[in-house]
């Protein structure tokens, strides 16, 4: 009887140990699951107005996120949610009105821990900081979205001044505010007047500038508009025909040729002498006429 009791006690001890290790394993598994991090990009994401863009967000180590809740939000909005995923459903009613039917997850990739956000037809108002949050893990990351706009410039010959030509360049529909540069045929920066900048009611910028070029700058000039923050650049090229450059050579300048200058002085002197002679002849005739009148 005592032997049976001891055997039973040993069996109970073993069962207790088994239960303990089983519980420990489950706790360890749960602990490992809770250690997954929500990872986003280190650099801002840049998008142009009208583009479709992806804001990256992933679970690391990889775990199935299909049955988890996923929230994308912007703290500067009310309501703040850009997308809410719960119980395997995209809750459209939770979104801020400006994102209705424009945001989505890659549902086929959720099992791989990919909880990236896709924004369709990006607007200027979409620019901001987005929070990717997984409530079950109590982990989040942020993604900065920079929105830009760009368009090709147009350049034309504005006017000619002596041996110089004035060019004008304009480009509309930029964001953020860009800079406008003039380059000669060798890529050298040209000195131009101040850039005129206008901001429209749609918050987009229009820039324009004029530059005066000479024949020495070559006939091919480039107008470049660029925005460094969005890494956008547009340019146009303009060819100035030789006919537009009125070259005044030294040989064609009367004051620079001694012979021509002498001839010019002689002609002017002769003309003046003739004028004086005519005047005196006219005066003598007038005097003779007056004398006859008095005699009569």
TrEMBL record:
One of its GO terms (molecular function) is signaling receptor binding. One of its GO terms (cellular component) is external side of plasma membrane. Its main location: membrane. The chain crosses the membrane at residues 260-282. Gene3D superfamilies: Immunoglobulins. Residues 50-134, 135-239 form the Ig-like domain. One of its GO terms (biological process) is T cell receptor signaling pathway. SUPFAM superfamilies: Immunoglobulin. PANTHER family: BUTYROPHILIN, ICOS LIGAND. This is Ig-like domain-containing protein. It comes from Oreochromis aureus. The lineage of its organism: Eukaryota, Metazoa, Chordata, Craniata, Vertebrata.
């Amino acid at each position: 009887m005592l032997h049976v009791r001891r055997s039973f006690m040993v069996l109970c001890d073993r069962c207790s140990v088994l239960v303990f290790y089983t519980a420990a394993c489950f706790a360890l598994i749960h602990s490992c699951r809770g250690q997954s991090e929500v990872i986003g990009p280190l650099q801002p994401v840049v998008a142009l107005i009208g583009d479709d863009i992806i804001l990256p967000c992933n679970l690391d180590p990889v775990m199935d996120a299909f049955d988890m809740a996923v929230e994308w939000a912007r703290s500067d909005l009310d309501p703040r949610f850009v997308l809410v995923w719960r119980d395997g459903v995209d809750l459209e009613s939770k979104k801020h009105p400006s994102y209705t039917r424009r945001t989505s997850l890659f549902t086929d990739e959720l099992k791989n821990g990919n909880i990236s956000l896709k924004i369709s037809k990006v607007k200027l108002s979409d620019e901001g900081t987005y929070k990717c949050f997984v409530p079950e893990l109590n982990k989040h990351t942020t993604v900065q979205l920079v929105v830009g706009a760009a368009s090709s410039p147009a350049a034309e010959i504005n006017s000619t001044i002596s041996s110089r030509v004035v060019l004008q360049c304009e480009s509309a529909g930029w964001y953020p505010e860009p800079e406008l540069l003039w380059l000669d045929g060798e890529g050298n920066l040209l000195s131009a007047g101040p850039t005129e900048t206008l901001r429209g009611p749609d918050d987009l910028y229009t820039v324009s500038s004029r530059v005066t070029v000479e024949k020495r700058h070559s006939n091919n000039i480039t107008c470049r508009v660029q925005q460094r923050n969005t890494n956008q650049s547009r340019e146009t090229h303009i060819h100035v025909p030789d006919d537009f450059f009125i070259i005044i050579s030294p040989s064609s300048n009367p004051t620079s040729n001694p012979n021509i200058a002498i001839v010019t002085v002689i002609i002017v002197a002769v003309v003046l002498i003739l004028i004086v002679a005519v005047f005196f002849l006219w005066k003598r005739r007038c005097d003779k006429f007056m004398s006859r009148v008095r005699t009569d």
